[in-house]
Amino acid sequence: MPAGLNGLLPALVLIVLFFVVPVLALLLRSVTEPEPGLQNYAALLGDGTYARVFFNTFLVASVVTIVTVLVAFPVAWMLAIMPSALASIVFGVIILSMWTNLLTRTYAWMVLLQRTGVINRTLMAAGIIDQPLPLINNLTGVTIGMVYIMLPFMILPLVGTLRAIDPMTLRAAALCGASPFQAFRRILLPLSLPGVAAGGLMVFVMSLGYFVTPALLGGTSNMMLAEMIAQMIQSLLNWGLGSAAAFILLVVTMALYALQLRLVGARRISGGA
């Protein structure tokens, strides 16, 4: 073995044991249980009920990613331009939210979003609404809860990208007569796209496989793929169908990651040229 690979051997062993072997076992079960064949994949891709779960999964992941980008961008820009001492405090608060137990944060949103929760009671007391808004057990509740959880994963790569942009570029655009919106659309946004792509992919992929928040804040009509896989394996003991669904989710995730690498690589090449 080449000397340069000796240091990589422990990492390669861990990857094989804890990633490659489980994935192969998953694939094997998906084509051998309850009997050899591709009937599990045919059932998943041909049944309307399963197709709706797939659609809900990608719909929720897409909505969460878009809303997270819209909310995270101004926060990341604020962190990039504010004084370092204040930015460190705000950054610490954002990181601290990641250390709080996920289940605790989700239950907190259940309390806030329910019909008699703080949000509805405040809006009704202010005379803004007459009846409580349906903020839980639907797509709205899932989106709110997951955006809150995903925000740090979007802000972190965005801050690094925005801080790397030379402020003189925006000043030069202003001196050339560009309006703030034009400077944002033609300079800041294109230069920040690598951070948006990295954070957006991370949020989208994590949202595809999320389980706790959609299960607690969503309803039966908004079931996602991770929840369906859990029910298949834990309740129905249908390992074949559950393994097939999990493997499809893994393949889609890897395909999206490969597409993102290709797009970012092409952008870097075109930018360097």
From TrEMBL:
Source superkingdom: Bacteria
Per UniProt, subcellular location reads as: Cell membrane
Question: Can the keyword Cell membrane be found in this entry's annotation?
Answer: yes
Q: Which GO terms describe its cellular component?
A: plasma membrane
GO biological process, any: transmembrane transport
Q: What is this protein called?
A: Putative spermidine/putrescine transport system permease protein
Limits of the ABC transmembrane type-1 domain: 54-260
* Cell membrane found in the keyword field: yes
> Which coarse location class applies to the principal site listed for this UniProt protein?
membrane
Keywords annotated in UniProt: Cell membrane, Membrane, Transmembrane, Transmembrane helix, Transport
Q: Which organism is it from?
A: Rhizobium loti (Mesorhizobium loti)
Q: Where are the transmembrane segments?
A: 12-32, 53-73, 79-100, 141-162, 191-216, 236-259
Task: Write down the membrane topology.
Answer: Multi-pass membrane protein
| Family of this protein | Belongs to the binding-protein-dependent transport system permease family. CysTW subfamily.
Return any one Pfam family short name: BPD_transp_1
